[in-house]
Every structure is written in structure tokens, then in C-alpha cells.
Amino acid sequence: MFSAVTPAPLAPGDISLSRTEIAGFWVEGPLCGLSIALYIVYIRLFWQEPRSRRKAALLGLATVQVLASITHYIAGLTDLIAAFVIHINDSSGADGWFSAAGRATYLPQYFCWATTYIIADALMAWRCWVIWSKNRLLAIVFITLCIGQTAITYVNFGFIASAGMRKTIFSATHAFVAIFALSLALQISATTLIAWRLLHTRHELIGLVELSGSSRRLSLVWMVIESGAILTSATLAVMVLFILKFQAGAMMIPIITQLSFLVPTSVIVRAMMKKAAVGETVPSLPLHSPSSRDRVILIEAPPKPRRARGSGGTVHSLASAIVITTTVETDAKVDDIAPSPAEA
Description:
Keywords: Membrane, Transmembrane, Transmembrane helix. The chain is mostly helical. It is built from ten helices and five strands. Strands 1-2-3-4-5 form a five-stranded antiparallel beta sheet.
């Protein structure tokens, strides 16, 4: 028996915390399994390619994320067992257990979510910065947003931990909306810039690369994934639900935790698989003007469309065929980071 806070009354259209937690955990399970499978593929591809510090750093971040994702799922399972097995007969029941923000089974969930989420935002900002030729203004803006988001997120972790079993998540946190506001500012700006660059490059090269109808649709789907729009949409949803004080927003946190690993890692893995499937290149062509530092390198496709084995798409997928060379030392692939000439 424990002394928990009284569950807050449900807003019109909201669902109980018990149902919210079950729904979130139910969706997180398959996503966590997909995360593990994707990480295994990532490891296999990593050992097949030449080593570099940049690739090792990306793998290190992915390792932290997948460990955080798995830990989050295990902590969520422990949370459900505590609510529906240990405390189900308490006066406030499972809803009372889930209402306590500082419960021991929730703290590791929050920490793991915060860690993988911040890394995902940082990776999105970094990709946008590289794709846009390492623009200094973008670097300043993104670094400021990342630092602010990180500081507020972990400060809130301290508030939640000190709340114990006395407060709900709405009363225990301070400036919680600011976390999502800063994250959305970063995600929306990075998503828009990446999507614009991908779409703009696609239009410029549409006459150079012949795509079938299915390949064009597939390239558009991957453009949405590569731009980070999926994670941005999930962040916007949980922010709106939190502002409305809907308990249903809790089901989005497990989903976002897994998406924070799946979205950036799927982009990297897909690029590595495409690179392994198609190796030849044609001479570089200017992207905007001969004086521009940006150049486009096309991966030469075979005469007829065919499936690239294990690549998750065709070799005609335009987004995976474009490489933007930002400097002599660094080649920034639109959907990943390709090896620089010095590393080749």
C-alpha cells in the first residue's frame, strides 16, 4: 500500500491513464523489436565498410539510443506490472499509481526518453547543417536550441524525481511545454530546410534521372522520412495533448522514444545499403551554379529499373542517389553521410 495522489478528473474526450499506458506500451513493443533488428543491420553494415571517426561517432550515438529504447521498454513493462499486479487493489488502483510522477518505475522511462529524444534532435540539426553547406547561422541557432532543450529537459527530471508520489506529471514539471517548444522550433526548421533541399534537388535532376512511377512515389515517401517529418508530427501531437492536459498524451512518449532511434537510424542504414548496392558514379555536375561550392554526384543506375537487394527500395530512388559535396574534405549525403575523398 502506498499513499498516491488522487487521479485527476478526465477532460471531455480523454481516456484514463491505465488505458493510456497500456496503449502506449502495446505500440512500443513492435517498435522496440524493429529498433533491435535495425541496429543489428546497422552493425553488420558498419563492419563491412571502411572505418572513419564520423561513422564511429554515428554508431556510438545509435548504440546509446538503442540501449535507451530497450531500457525504456523494460521500465514500461515493470511499470505495468507494478500498477496491475502489485497496486491494483489499492484505494486509487492502477490510475493512482500511474498518476504519481515520481514513481520509481517512471523515472528511468523519462530519462531514457529524454536521452534518445535529444540525440535525435541533435542528429536532425547536424544533418540539416551539413546539407546546407555548414552554414554558420544555422549552427548557432541549432546549438542554442539543443543546449536549451537539454538543460530544461534534465532540470525537469530533477523536479519529477523530487516530487515523489505526491504530485502528478502536470504539477511536478516546470516549463515542460518549453521542452517541446524548443524541440519543435528545431525540428520544424530542420525538417523544412531538409525537405526543401531534397525537393529542390529532385526538380533540378528530374531530367537527368529517369524514374518509374513507383520509384517516384517511393522517393517521395523516403523524402518525408529523411526530412524528419514523422518525428516532428509526433512531437506536435504530444505537445498539444499536454497543453490540453489530456492524459492520452502519455501514450505518445513510448512511441516517440522508439521513433527517436528509428527515424535517424533508418536513414543511415538505407543510405549504407544503397551505397553497397550501387557503387559506380558519374562525373560531378553543378547544383546551382559553377561558382557554387555545392556539387551533385549521381550514383549511376542500370538501364532498367530493378530492385536493389535488401535496400528497401529501387536503385532509382532519387533521394538515395544524390550526394551533396559541401567541402573538399566532407561529403554530405542527403540521406546520410558518405565517405570523404580522403577516406575513400
